[in-house]
Amino acid sequence: MEFISFLLSGLLGFITPTGIVVDKVAENAIRSQFARVEKLQVRVEHSPTHQLLQGNVKKIRIAGRGFKLKQYDFRIDALELETDDIAFSPNNIQKGKLELQQPLKAGIKLIFTPADINKLLQSPDILALLPKLKLDSKDYINTDDDAVYKFANPQFNVLDNNKLFFQIELRSEEDEKPLLIKVESGLKIKKGRQFQLIETLVTVNEEQVAPQFVEGIVKNLNQRLDLSNLEGDGLLIRILKFNIRPSELEIAAFVQIKPSSKFVENPLSPSALSTKPLTQVQVLSQPISEGVR
C-alpha cells in the first residue's frame, strides 16, 4: 500500500513555479511517477484561479489503466483516484517542497490481475528478497533435520470459489527433490483496516500441514496485514470494498495523509514541473472514468 502514499504525496508536483496548473501538466507529472502508463486522464479543479495561488485545490481526479511501477516489475491494471480539497503552502511548492496545511484525503480504487501479480512474484527483484531457510521440520513435514532451503517459482491464482491460491517451491542446496508448498485461503477485511486470511489450508508435497502450525503462521501474517500499523507514520487507510474474482482483484479505499507524515517529507521532483508559463485549465468534456475503459 505504500505506493498509494507515494502517488498522493506527488500529486502537487504539477504546480508550476508560476503557480498555474493545467490538466496536461498534471497528467505528465503523474506519468513521471511510473515507468509506463497505458491510458490516463487527469482533471484538476481549482476555480477561481486565485484560490490556487493561495494554496488551495478543490479536487483532483485521476483515472487510468496499465500503471507500471518504477520500483518493481509490477503493473496495476486500473486506478481511479479522487481527492477532497487540498490546502498547501504555495511558497514552499515553488521551492520544490510539499507542505500540506491540512490532511490530504482521497478515495482510490485499484484493480490487479493474477497475471500481473505472478509477473511480480517471479521477477528477479522479488526472488532476491526471499530468504534462505534452515528448517528443523520433522514435526510437520518429512525432511532431514536442519536442512537449508531457498524459495523458488512462486505462483498465484484465484480459484472458482473466490479463494486465493499460492504455491512455491522450497529447494534444498543439496539439489534434492524440491518441496512443493501449496496454500489455499479465503481473505476477509476486519473493521476496514485489516486483511485476514481465513480457512487456510497448507500442504507440502500433497501432505496437509498440522493445523496448529498453520494457525501460528496465519496469526503472524494477519498482524502484519493490519493497516493501522501505518498510522504511526501519518498514513491512514480504510478498505471500503474488496472483491475477489478469477480475473481480477478489486480494492476501494479511503486514504488520508497527515501534514506531518514522513510520506510528504521528500522534495517534489523538478522533472514534474512545466518549463513554460501556463495560464489556462483544460476541462474534460466526458466523465473521467469513461475515457480509460
Q: How would you summarize what this structure contains?
A:
Helix content is about 20%, strand content about 40%.
Keywords:
293 residues, alpha+beta, 6-stranded antiparallel β-sheet, 14 strands, 19% helix, 39% strand
- Regions with little confidence, pLDDT below 50 for 5+ residues: 136-140, 267-291
* Count of individual beta strands: 14
The structure class reads alpha+beta
* Helix count, DSSP H or I runs of 4 or more residues: 7
Q: Classify the beta-strand content into a percent band.
A: 35-45%
- C-alpha termini separation: 24 Å
H/E element sequence: HHEHEEEEHEHHEEEEEEHEE
- Gyration radius (Cα, Å) is 23 Å
* Biggest sheet statistics: 6 strands, antiparallel
For the largest sheet, list the strands in their spatial order. Answer: 1-3-4-6-14-13
Report the mean per-residue pLDDT as an integer.
Answer: 78
Q: What general form does the structure show? A: elongated
- Helix fraction? 10-25%
